[in-house]
Amino acid sequence: MQRRNLLATAALTFGLALSGGAAMAQGLEKVKACFIYVGPIGDGGWTYQHHQGALALVEEYGDKVEIAWQESVPEGADAERAITQFALDGCNIIFTTSFGFMDATQAIAAQFPDIKFEHATGFKRDQPNVSTYDARFYEGRAVMGTIAGHMTKSNKIGYIGSFPIPEVIQGINASFIHAKKVNPDVAMSVVWAYTWFDPAKEADAAKALIDQGVDVILQHTDSTAPLAEAAKVPGVIGFGQASDMSAYKPSPRVSAIIDNWAPYYIKRVGALMDGTYEQSAAWEGIAGGEVEIGEITEAVPAEVKAAAEKVRDDIAAGTYHPFTGPLNKQDGSAWLAEGEVADDGVLATMNFYVEGITGDIPNQN
Amino acid sequence: MLRLERRATPSQFWLWFTPVLAVFLTMLAGGLLFAALGSNPFTVIRTIFWEPLAGANAAYFRAQLFIKAAPLILIAVGLAMGFRAGIWNIGAEGQYIMGAIIGASVGLAFYPTENRLIFPVMVAAGAFGGWAWAMIPAILKTKFNTNEILVSLMLVYVAQAILAKAAFSFLRNPDGMGFPGSRNFSTYPAARNVDLIERSGFHWGAVAALGVAVAAYVLLTRHGIGFRIRLAGQAPRAARFHGVSPARLVIFCLGLAGALAGLAGIFEASGPSGQITDKFATGYGFTAIIVAFLGRLNPLGIILAGLLMALTYVGGSLAESRLNLPAASIQVFQGMLLFFLLGVDMLTNYRIRIGRSLRTGAGA
Fold this sequence. Notes:
- The complex is a heterodimer.
- In chain A, the strands form three sheets. Chain A has a six-stranded parallel sheet with strand order 2-1-3-4-5-11, with helices on both faces. In chain A, strands 7-6-8-9-10-12 form a six-stranded mixed sheet, sandwiched between helices.
- Chain A has two domains: 2-135 and 260-284, Response regulator (Rossmann fold); 138-257 and 293-348, 3-Layer(aba) Sandwich (Rossmann fold).
- Chain A is 39% helix and 19% strand.
- In chain A, α5 (137-151) packs parallel to α6 and α7 (199-211) packs parallel to α8.
- The longest helix of chain A is centred in the first third of the chain and has 17 residues, at 2-18.
- Chain A is an alpha/beta fold.
- By secondary structure, chain B is mostly helical.
- Chain B folds into two domains: 1-39 and 325-364, no CATH class; 67-323, Orthogonal Bundle (ABC transporter involved in vitamin B12 uptake, BtuC).
- Chain B has 15 helices and two strands.
- Chain B has helices at residues 12-36, 41-49, 51-54, 58-84, 92-109, 118-144, 148-170, 204-222, 224-234, 236-241, 246-270, 284-294, 299-323, 327-344, 346-349, and strands at residues 2-6, 350-354.
- Chain B has a two-stranded antiparallel ribbon.
- In chain B, α6 (118-144) packs antiparallel against α11.
- Residues 360-364 of chain B have low confidence and may be disordered.
- The interface between A and B is large, with 41 and 39 residues.
């Protein structure tokens, strides 16, 4: 119950921020924006996209913004030191771009009340100067799932999971629901890689899926290794993750979910400049531009492409929510009634599969 | 022509001067690397070695040196005792992880009870965890004559798997909304490893590191066990005639190193890191091997070596953020340090002669 309240409060804060709220006293002439990355910029996925967002700030604001970054920051005490370094070096706003930096961000924010902190994918906003931001990747998964359901010939699709956390489980459920919607015979296998980025492990996971007869692979890990494996077997397709992964066009990469942090970074730094900055909990998706659907290639038939684009456009227009009832949980118990949509509190803590997915989520309790 | 000639006895001068030379050569080669990356090498070297000590906000960074050095020194002292006796424990990282998991499990089992005894019990449990993990290679070696290098190293990967399991299941924070990671010890005062002086970085782990280093020095130089350790390393046959039991020495050295690594783990988990996560292990157990050799396997030397290594971390991270250097360049820089240390180490046992050897005719 307490968790719900926390999120409800956050949603309220966010609502206020969106509606303009009360403007802050004054803005800043020049902003120093600093970024803490969990991986190397050259990962081609998660960190690379955050860095693209950072560079977009310079493109947008020119001399009025200065950026600094530190890559491959380990979580824990090292993260606290890296964040403090930026705080001491005069950063006005610090973006900590990984879930694992959550507690460190809170701790340092308490010591520097005048500096703004933005933590990606977390949920703690105990300090008034900490905001959180995330993207509704599951919206993109709904589009991928639609393509997957149409395209599979073996009726077996596979999902390479990174870690069994709510964000990943949302993606698995959204993919399956939409594949099933267009192809009632579809079955999905999930393989857990326990990594965000490890080409060797990801390749093994892809191989294991292909051996099971899977011909459409969805991935929640950041390397191109699964696509490279798919490329070896005719008829197997996959999707780019985090970045476009366009090297594998037109097949096996038939589309992609692209994280685009630039609109959010530009908005927040801009708010700091014009004095309208407020604490917020941003969770935007296709509509806000944070989740982009990479080009759907000619390897996909036109009518499938049209169906996928309709899902994308309906989500963007706000007329369709990927988690709309009737939906049951894996154990058959009712979750959402006809026409009911999932609320953000449940999504943010999602720890169950929807009906029809086989297998268990590992390490539950 | 240059050639090497073995010294009759190792040079005392070079024994202590090679680390200094290695640091100097690292600065030189590192400077070239940074220049090749387009940075001013003098600025980078200054940022790494000088800024944390005396630059802007140095008070904060000096405290960070203790935080970074304490686990390195604790682990390296234990490893050095074994290395001196010819017992090669490469798995301190695993012992560090297991100490943290066992210690944290004991502490969190009491949550949210407030009692002054909880922290000491946690620390003891941490030491036990590391000791028990080190006993696996120790017993396998004494009973079945397995190679402790391989067994202790392989057990690191087992420990990492247990760590992931802990973060995702049995130690997962019940209030963490399903995300991995244990409860944070900063929210549990009875089990928190606090700075003894506010913001000094001098937590219980740093106290333990200094105490252990001094105790180990006394043990090595003044105590019978220390004598047996040195004897076993320098002259194994003589040691056996002297009545030194190799099996007991293996149990003692691996156990000590394991317990100290476990201590480092629990101090880290309850203090600077604050929680057990799947990313808790950042390689202290491996870096400590470098620290042990940089400190000449001498506990007092290890204190200096630990602080120097900490400086390359703290200063290196500062250089990354201020000069936007890639993280890999700092890692290469640290790697150079070990490389040069091992390279110039031969000066301790060999001298360089210029000219023809007197014995070339012998056709050796």
